[in-house]
Amino acid sequence: MKIENIKPIPKYIEKLIKKKFLNSYGKYAKKASFYSYFSKYKNRLIQYTVAVIFKHNQVYMKQVAVHTVGSKNCFIKDIIFYQIAGHIVGWYYQGLSKHKKHFEDDEWGLATAKYFNLYPTPVNKEYILKLKQYKYSAITQYTEWDYLKYLEYYEKYPIAEMLVKLGLSSFATSKLILEKLTKDKAFRKWIYNNREKIYHRNYVQTILTAYKTNQDIDKTQKIYELDKAFSSRSDNYEKLKNLIPKNKKLQMLNYILEQNTTLSSYQDYINACKELELDLSLDKNVFPHDFKHWHDVRIDEYNSKQAEIDKRKRKKLYEQFKNVSDKYLSLERLLVKDDYVCLIAKSPQQLIHEGQELQHCVGRMGYDQKFAREETLIFFIRNRLSPNTPFVTLEYSISSKKILQCYAFHNSRPDEDVMQFVNHVWLPYANRKIRKIS
């Protein structure tokens, strides 16, 4: 077909499109809606795509694409496709825009068909049956949107009609399914007998695998979905991939399905077994008879072990913290002549209390770890008359012998008299003392 063979929209088609558009509340849409109608040229089916928009209390429409069955190219006019924004139609020549867009020229041009398959709503689908080659195509029962693709496959694999009549239109454009149906009579019988179980959410591979292995379709589908999630490139199940041998993957997927659990729960269980140093070469550990029971047992054992480890680590931290505090105890200043006193933190718990009372982060963010490693020291500036009441918190660098931070309530700057004490009284005093420790 050539550009000069493109004909205007017939009047009766305009009426059909307008009626369908208005009945579907299309006039409230902000973007153009797309409809299609079928015609023929030299006994070849032609699909015209029409853009429709409602402006100034009036329906405007125009042809924007022309496709033919089996062609990799199509004709387009006043329309463009962006990967992110999708299809945009220009309406300058209809008087709906003051400025012509760069892709508008009111002339037909050639484009790649797949980028302008707009899945438009057909208004005369029954016309297809007028063409001899599609008389038995069951096109009026086809429930998907890509009519031309279906008809292209139907021409090569007439058995596609069987799938449409069985309510399986979504598989009528699968080359793998159609070739198998054409060559394998037993497969045709199997599809017919299992038509109620097969639905559009099934993968093609699920159907072929279920037929080959004579397994239940629903179970095969679930196994396939589990495998797809497990084998994805994401690192969601990286631990599980490292702990389960490849030759046990299918056994694992079937086990997860049979035990009515999830990949995430199973990964938590296997990881707990590893941390508990159980032998993962034994099936009784990898695939316990009652997963829920043993999952709860192993997770509880793992948590108990971690709690004991954390307790030992915490005890060690407290010991290290106290040793550092004792080492630098001489940096405290408690002279009666001063308005303020400076106390060194004695434990991580004191940091937590200080942070809670003054609403800053000294009780978290790892300050206790830094203190225990002697990377930094934490001091409390208090009013001499109320030395137990949190007032100002100070962070001091042992290596640079400088004050890193000094904050009062909610990270506010202390009063000038406090800063005078910190910078000109305590700091010189502390630096003299620390030289003796070093």
What does this structure look like?
It contains 15 helices and 12 strands. The chain has a 6-stranded mixed sheet with strand order 7-4-3-2-1-8, covered by helices on one side. Strand 10 and strand 11 form a beta hairpin. The model has no long low-confidence stretch (mean pLDDT 93). The chain folds into 4 domains: 120 residues, no CATH class; 70 residues, no CATH class; 87 residues, no CATH class; 110 residues. It is an alpha+beta fold and 438 residues long. Helix 10 packs across helix 12.
Please tell me the total number of domains: 4
Largest sheet: 6 strands, mixed
Main sheet: strand order: 7-4-3-2-1-8
Total number of helices:
15
**What is the succession of H and E elements?**
HEEEEEEEEHHHHHHHHHHHEHHEEEH
Distance between the terminal alpha carbons, to the nearest Å?
93 Å
Shape: elongated
Strand content: 15-25%
User: How many β-strand runs?
Assistant: 12
How does the helix and strand content classify structurally?
Answer: alpha+beta
Point out poorly predicted stretches.
none
Q: Any idea what the radius of gyration is? A: 38 Å
Q: Layout of SSEs?
A:
Layout: H1 11-23, E1 33-41, E2 44-55, E3 58-68, E4 73-76, E5 79-82, E6 86-89, E7 109-112, E8 121-122, H2 147-156, H3 160-165, H4 175-183, H5 185-193, H6 204-213, H7 217-230, H8 238-243, H9 249-258, H10 263-275, H11 283-286, H12 291-327, E9 340-344, H13 348-358, H14 367-372, E10 377-383, E11 392-397, E12 402-407, H15 416-437
Parallel strand pairs: 1-8
Antiparallel strand pairs: 1-2, 2-3, 3-4, 4-7, 5-6, 9-10, 10-11, 11-12
Helix pairs in contact: 4-5, 6-7, 7-9, 10-12
